[in-house]
Write a structure and sequence with these properties.
Strand content: 15-25%
Structural class: alpha/beta
Oligomer: single chain
CATH architecture of the largest domain: Alpha-Beta Barrel
Helix content: 25-40%
Number of strands: 18
Radius of gyration: 23 Å
Bound molecules: ligand LLP
CATH class of the largest domain: Alpha Beta
């Protein structure tokens, strides 16, 4: 394995300079990952996966547009140089701040419910809109990230489209986009069904549709044994759909992909410092205790997600199965866990305090989902530019930065 995220000296230097836990992103890898999507007419990056400004700017420079879901993401996308016209706001609902921003910037909305159409019309007046369709089935790496089917809150139920067509006409909305996103971490088993489900939608909205989005969700191979996502098959099925629909409507439709994970997952690592080790006796476990916890990266706790963990600079020291746990005062604060918290130790050497561990493939939904639980800071983020220069991109954010203000408020 090559690239700066596998350069042990560099990671150790960065940890010494900026402290731990520390996210490090390889922007050249982000840029390279756009290549996965070369077959599509356009790529729209799902900002929620990683909203670091360096990452956003790299994807904009690479030609991507973006998908945003909050006023905060809109602000970050603007700061990275995206124009309002480059953004689609995905809305199953819009809170007050979002409504104001969408109205002020006249953002294109991807409406995930009939109610959203009413709001879009009243906020922005007649104009173009996209519909997010729930085709009645879904798939994801975990139940929690499956976004199609009767138990998902996302999208307009497929049987409501006829009624929605009538309502959009009354409201003066032109449905130029049709979108479907059935879940995150797709294995690709439902591609044919999903493309087929769009046949009906395209036929209904044939007068106005210009763009079809197949959503995101393409899985990333976190384990060495995982099959990489079969993009060739996925793209060819969707491209065949696009060509069929283009012929049917008499103009060339644009096929858009809306990935998050696959653009950034392998472009980020989390460096964490070992604070100690402990064992729980015969038949028990050996823990390496580190300064990152589920406040820094929550995927194992939330989804039983696997992330490879490696000891920095350990060479070929002997390893044994070890659990890696964080500093939070909560027993779920363990990086080595499978579904429902099942222990999933990884091979690691004995570690001394001050040594470093690297948690791999955390570029997607890593820092983006971090919190300040236990009044701990959000980790700092470093980017490595394509020319190899590393730079602090965001300092650690301490929830106590407003402590004085809090004291004042209490008086
Ligand atoms: N488009 C929409 C409307 C979405 O809701 C999402 C992700 C994407 C695109 C991008 O999906 P991706 O290509 O990244 O799978 N926190 C979870 C993933 C949540 C995905 C939310 N929506 C995780 O860590 O696995």
């Amino acid at each position: 394995m090559t690239g700066p995220l596998h350069d042990e000296d560099l990671l150790a230097e960065l940890a010494a300079a900026h402290g731990t836990p520390l996210y490090v992103y390889d922007l050249a890898a982000v840029r390279r990952n756009l290549e996965h999507f070369h077959a599509f007419d356009s790529v729209r990056y799902a900002v929620k996966a990683n909203s670091n400004l360096g990452v956003l700017r790299t994807l904009r420079e690479g030609g991507a547009r973006c998908e945003v879901v909050s006023a905060g993401e809109i602000a970050r996308a603007l700061a990275a140089g995206f124009e309002p016209g480059d953004m689609v706001y995905t809305a199953d609902l819009m809170d007050r701040r979002a409504r104001q921003t969408v109205r002020d910037l006249r953002l294109h909305v991807n409406a995930g419910s009939a109610t959203m159409l009413e709001q879009v019309a009243s906020l922005c007046g007649p104009g173009d809109v996209t519909l997010r369709i729930n085709p009645g089935f879904g798939e994801g790496h975990d139940e929690k990230v499956t976004t199609g089917g009767a138990h998902s809150k996302h999208g307009i139920w497929h049987e409501e489209l006829v009624a929605v067509l009538a309502r959009t006409r009354e409201l003066g909305l032109r449905v130029t986009g049709l979108h479907v996103h059935i879940g995150s971490g797709l294995k690709g088993r439902l591609v044919e069904r999903t493309v087929e489900a769009m046949d009906n939608a395209v036929a209904l909205f044939q007068e106005t549709v210009t763009r079809v989005s197949c959503g995101g969700g393409m899985s990333f191979p976190y384990r060495a044994a995982d099959e990489p996502f079969d993009m060739e098959r996925f793209a060819s099925l969707w491209l065949a759909g696009r060509d069929r629909w283009s012929e049917a409507v008499g103009r060339r439709l644009e096929l858009e992909a809306e990935p998050g994970r696959l653009l950034v997952a392998d472009a980020g690592v989390l460096v964490t410092e070992v604070c100690g080790m402990k064992s729980t006796g015969e038949g028990g476990a050996t823990f390496v205790l580190v300064d990152a916890g589920f406040h820094s990266m929550i995927r194992p706790l939330l989804y039983g997600a696997f992330h490879r963990i490696a000891a920095l600079g350990a060479g070929d020291r002997p390893t044994s199965p070890k659990m890696v746990a964080g500093p939070l005062c909560e027993s779920a604060d363990v990086f080595t866990q499978g579904k429902a918290g099942a222990p999933a130790p990884q091979p690691l050497p004995d570690m001394a305090p001050g040594e470093l561990l690297v948690i791999h493939d955390v570029g997607a939904y890593g820092a983006a989902m971090a919190s300040c639980y236990n009044s701990r800071p959000l980790p700092a983020e470093v980017v490595i530019h394509p020319d190899g220069e590393a730079a602090l991109a965001r300092p650690a954010i301490d929830p106590n930065q407003f402590l004085e203000r809090e004291q004042e408020l209490l008086r």
